[in-house]
Amino acid sequence: MTVCIKKVCEYNISKIQDSLSQSLELINFKLSHRKTAVLKPNIVMPAKPKTSVVTHPAVVEATINLLRNAGIEDISIVEEPAIGLDVQESFRVSGYTELANRMGVNLYGFDDIEKAEIQWKYGKLKIPKIFLDTDLYINLPKIKTHGYTTVTLSIKNQKGLVSSQIKKYIHTIGLHVPLIELAKVISPHLIIMDGIYAMEGEGPTQGKSRRLNTIVVGTNQLECDITASRLMGIDPCKVDHLAYGINEGLGEAEPVITGDSIQSLMRQFLPANLEYGRKLNVYAWRNPAACSMCMDSFHKAIKEAVLDPKWWLPFVSKFAWYALFGRINILQGKNASLPPLPGWNVCFGTCTKELAKEKGFAYIPGCPPVSNDVLKSFFSA
Ligand code: SF4
User: I need a surface site. Which of 56, 228, 352, 360 has the fewest CB within 10 A?
Assistant: First the structure.
């Protein structure tokens, strides 16, 4: 199948819309004879569009305009942020509540809509039924690097179709293979990737926004992901889930490209460190068996502490000391391990309870831990 790359340099809705129209023509994709559409952007957490954490609402708005022009009136946006986060807050902060109200489209979280059971390699799975019933499912990921999966693109974006329990399960069984197994049982009719600004470094939530000037459009998830990976200067064969997808025959390793030349738009993105994430002397050791929300609960707690004077003395001062002059090692997920290193070792989340007990490390309960428990653990350290 053909993947279209188009150069788009700004979040200007009419320019994005023109580019999408041209892309659909180039890949010979017809919108006619469809009555319903479901859009799945990436809204992993409450984040402003300029941070490049979420799919920019301008790309979704341009897509909605295109669908309306083709006579599709029944349009829904469906997304579920990462585990433990408030879906309505995620929609509001990222601009999707305002977009949905203004455009008159439905906006649903996972819990708001009827589910349907489907079979996958690991048994039964519930996903929102709307994705199975619709005439047109469009996956709209943000192009980002990722600390566990190297890249997060359309295949990874589908993790938002499953319940929190299944998300956790996917991590505990190895992440890379189940992502492809999920793609085998549910895949979009169309993929539109927001890479006008993308994210490099410590994605999916802590990386840096970086201009890529690109929108990628196609109908095969694996081929779109391979193309976007190359646009970031990352060899797709070195991305575990993409390599597995190629082996499983989900698409071509060398997709046919149309539109603008990949060479002219390619950049060398800084990858996420796959061993650990580090800020000052705080090391968060990677473990694909850990959900990203376990780590994000730590970032969330720090932000809350900085804004609330009651934590300034018990937490911020202590944390600042450790971060500047000491060292903190954070462990997360099942079977977490740590090289023999100095520092204050903290086990995050119920998955690490046994490890904490065995090694005598500090332990913060929760799945994922809540801010209060994270902050209290420093207080008592
Ligand atoms: S404790 Fe953390 S890593 Fe383990 S299942 Fe819960 S959220 Fe995921």
Answer: 360
CA dist., res. 214 & res. 222, Å (int): 18
Ligand 1, closest atom to CA 83?
Answer: 7
* Range(s) of the domain holding residue 370: 276-379
> Ligand 1 centre and the CA of 123: distance in Å?
21
**CA separation for the pair 152, 146 (Å, rounded):** 6
Ligand 1 atom nearest 333 alpha carbon: 3
C-beta 356 within 6 A of ligand 1: no
Give residue 352 CA to ligand 1 midpoint distance, Å: 9
pLDDT values of the chain reduced to their tens digit, one per residue, 381 residues: 899 999 999 999 999 999 999 999 999 999 999 999 999 999 999 999 999 999 999 999 999 999 999 999 999 999 998 877 899 999 999 999 999 999 999 999 999 999 999 999 999 999 999 999 999 999 999 999 999 999 999 999 999 999 988 998 998 898 999 999 999 999 999 999 999 999 999 999 889 999 999 999 999 999 999 999 999 999 999 999 999 999 999 999 999 999 999 999 999 999 999 888 888 899 989 898 888 778 778 888 888 898 999 888 888 888 888 889 999 999 999 889 877 778 889 999 999 999 999 999 999 999 989 998 998 887 665
Residue in this structure with the two tokens 């990949």, named with its chain if needed? 262
pTM of the model: 0.92
Residue 147 beta carbon below 6 angstroms from any ligand 1 atom: no
Q: Whose CA is closest to 176, among 191, 204, 157, 156?
A: 156
- The C-alpha atoms of residue 328 and residue 284 are separated, in whole angstroms, by 8
Residue 270 lies in a domain: no
117 lies in the same domain as 189:
yes
Looking at the structure, tell me whether residues 317 and 225 fall in a common domain: no
